[in-house]
Amino acid sequence: MFLLPQIEVQETPKKGKGVFAADVIPAGAVIGDYLGIVMPSDEGNGDHEDDAVYDMWYSDMADICPEPDDNGVHLLNTSCEPNCAMHPIGRHTILFAVRKIFPGEELTYDYFMGEQESDCEPGTDNCHCGSPLCRGTMYSNPTAYTAWEEYLEDVMEDLPEEPPVAFGEPLPPLDEYPETIEDNVIYPLFGNHNEEPHECGVEMISSMEDLRETIRNTGCALAFPELGIVVEGVMYGGHIVMKHMVESGRASSHKVPHAQAKKLAVQASA
């Protein structure tokens, strides 16, 4: 279920359907609720078993299985540099914009699948998002996934695992939804590669909070001319992705701990 008017579903050359911004989507905006048929978690989505990548975890008892041909947030494609993310409200999975999204930009989120099962067919869950940081798989970094599980356990600690309707019935929407979701360090955050980096003063790199807030609100990578670097984003675990500014040629991206990035600011100020 979509909750924003400024989105549209389009066919994409390599990924089937995709969801795109018809207008600017501000940071934090709630995109929609992941609704579908409630099914036992060990049965998949029945008639659409080949589309099981659409299944969303509800609890250890149940999954949410949307109808693949319906329009809804299940049509968002995966990316290793996403502009949207999952957020739990009760046991509903809400998708929201982690940063400002520009008109014409495709909405994506990290499917962030857990540990790969031994009976999965090779290549079934490869990622083809095209990001320079693509992991090559929709399965998550084990350390990052553990942190996500701990986060979910904390926010869902007292919630019943039994779904509110019988298996085979659609999960009803919530009575009300927030308009925005606040930032959280649990989410990775990257600027749009097609937009000019937002120029920043050297002091900003010392504050992870300021870095995240600026990427989130501008939707852009951050340029630090005094340091000769561009901060492209923040990965799971707080590692900063940055590249050196060059007059010509191609600079490769690499990740560094935030503490190392702060040392650059200290050196530049000395």
List keywords for this structure.
3 helices, six-stranded mixed beta sheet, alpha+beta, 16 strands, four-stranded mixed beta sheet, 14% helix, Beta-clip-like, 270 residues, globular
Helices and strands in order:
Blueprint: E1 7-12, E2 16-21, E3 30-33, E4 37-40, E5 56-57, E6 62-65, E7 77-78, E8 84-89, E9 92-97, E10 106-109, H1 142-155, E11 189-190, E12 198-199, H2 208-218, E13 222-224, E14 229-234, E15 240-244, E16 254-256, H3 258-269
Explain the overall architecture.
The chain is of the alpha+beta class and 270 residues long. The chain folds into 2 domains: 149 residues, SET domain (Beta-clip-like), CATH 2.170.270.10; 81 residues. 14% of the residues lie in helices and 24% in strands. The protein is built from 3 helices and 16 strands. The strands form 4 sheets. Strands 11, 12, 13, 14, 15 and 16 form a 6-stranded mixed sheet that branches. It has a 4-stranded mixed sheet with strand order 1-2-10-7, with no helix packed on it. A 3-stranded antiparallel sheet has the order 3-9-8, with no helix packed on it. Helix 2 links the parallel strand 12 and strand 13. The relative contact order is 0.14.
Gyration radius, rounded: 19 Å
Distance between the termini: 53 Å
Unreliable sequence segments:
none
Total DSSP E strands: 16
The chain-level structural class is alpha+beta
CATH architecture of the largest domain: Beta Complex
Query: Can you tell me the overall shape?
Result: globular
State the CATH topology of the largest domain: Beta-clip-like
Q: What portion of residues is helical?
A: 10-25%
Biggest β-sheet description: 6 strands, mixed
Strand content: 15-25%
* Overall pLDDT: 87
Give the class-level CATH name of the largest domain: Mainly Beta
Number of domains: 2
Number of DSSP helices? Answer: 3
What would you give as the CATH superfamily of the largest domain?
A: SET domain
Taken in chain order, the helices and strands follow as EEEEEEEEEEHEEHEEEEH
